[in-house]
Structure formats: structure tokens, C-alpha cells
Input
Amino acid sequence: HCLQMVENSIGTLTAPTPKFGDENATRVAKTALASNQNIKDLVISEGIMTETQVTDVISIENITAPRRMRK
Output
């Protein structure tokens, strides 16, 4: 249940924003809110990040224990 909450929260977009930019984060957040879609799925479907990348960035472990993002 916790993972689902993380994947559906637009606040989760603050973690990968430095990697893919404010414009993408804003667009994804607006789309997610308007369509009630999952943040993770939107980021993947728009080609912003791969599934592996977004899973790594928004994992509960990495959100609660911040570290430098890989380039």
C-alpha cells in the first residue's frame, strides 16, 4: 500500500525533477491530477525515464535515505 501511495503522489516528482527538469515534472503532475494516473507510469510512457530509472528514483528506500542521483 505504501508503494502505491508513493507512485500516485505528485510530491514524488520532487525527487527526479533535477534529472528531467521542471517542465516535464509540471506536465506529468498536471496530467496525473487530471487523469488520476500513476506518476511512475506517466514518466515511463512519456519516455522521460526508463522503468528501472524511475523505480530507483522513487523507491521508498531512496526517498527516505537520500543520496546523489546517478547521471
Notes: The chain is about 60% helix and 0% strand. The mean pLDDT is 80. The two ends are 30 Å apart (CA to CA). The longest helix spans residues 22-35.
